Amino acid sequence: MDDRIEVDVCVVGAGPVGGVLACRMAAAGVRVAILDRAALPPMEHPDFDGRAYAIAGGSRALLEQAGLWQRLPYAPGPIRDIRVTDGRVGRAAGPLFLHFGAAEAGAEAFGWMIEARSLRMALNTALHGQNLLSVFAPAAATVTRAADGAVVRITGGPQIAARLVVAAEGRNSRLRQEAGIRVTRFPYRQTGLVCAIAHDRPHHGVALEHFLPAGPFAQLPMAATEAAANTSAIVWTERPEVAAQLMALPDDAYARQLARRLGDHLGAIRLIGRRWSYPLGALHAHHYTAERLALVGDAAHGIHPIAGQGLNLGLRDAALLATLAAAAVAAGEDPGAPALLARYQAARRPDSLMMLAATDALDRLFSTDSRLIRAARDLGIAAVHRLPPLKRLFMRQAMGLREA
What we know:
Number of strands: 21
Strand content: 25-35%
CATH superfamily of the domain at 4-44 and 117-184 and 282-364: FAD/NAD(P)-binding domain
Radius of gyration: 22 Å
Mean pLDDT: 87
CATH topology of the domain at 4-44 and 117-184 and 282-364: FAD/NAD(P)-binding domain
Oligomer: single chain
Largest sheet: 8 strands, mixed
Number of helices: 10
Structural class: alpha/beta
Helix content: 25-40%
CATH class of the domain at 4-44 and 117-184 and 282-364: Alpha Beta
CATH architecture of the domain at 4-44 and 117-184 and 282-364: 3-Layer(bba) Sandwich
């Protein structure tokens, strides 16, 4: 192995956003190195673990351009309709508030549900199969940035000289901290519960967003798995103390509590895969760039999962940064130049701030049992029904049809 490798961009963090970014850049002719603290074998044991991602229609193009959509080993499940309801525990089949049909927007689907294992397997295969992409994992490294470039020193490995370093290590980004970039955090007194269920009746590609006083409860249609023909992902928000009690229940008791909130429209249900829980919170970095550094994904922003847009927001970061870097490299210019980084920040921060504000407001508006607030939000949602242009705007947002 050579002692020094020269690349255009070094991505630190090979999660979904960092991995997609590296693959997209390499496919566009950018020399890329990517490193991660965890090992990334070309394939892993494909047990279904209950986790899935909602990929907006606008993000699918990026996955295709990165050569990943074609490599997904398990079929994505299309989201063709979205239904929004309101109610209380025990009355999950509450009145229909909103119904969005992808056909109304002239689209095949609002988005697709992709199993977490499926995207990870596609990423690991693609990362190891591109000529312009070097992978170092597991790897620990130190990063030195200067006006003329950056050097990434891998412990026990080579030095990587790069024009740009990308921080894609998540909410606790070490590169962001080392750059002195401050963040504002918004803690929610909520826990997210994630799992998957098998059910007797087909979902027909319909997603349900059901609002309860403790927070949103979402049922998201998945493609059939080896475990069941009818499968859905569940993203369920609860107060931390209630979530802890639920996680302590055996699977059958947990499923009964889930069914109380879901209703009976899918028939009998059972859990498949594992159950997961996460403390919920939001954050926003005060800057998305520093000298020779760009933040993407959760290193730059984290939002409430109420709209299922967290990963899509990070993928929009990746789409824009890949476009800017590829254009610079093709023109013989510097992909880490201050002007390019300024363009990236100017384009991405408004979108992220808007989504942060929207998801925060939605959570506060819907995670309550106040009669006054519920009456006010009912009037607002009724207005969306009566104003087709506003409804079309909501549908376009759901599909990620906006400029990156």
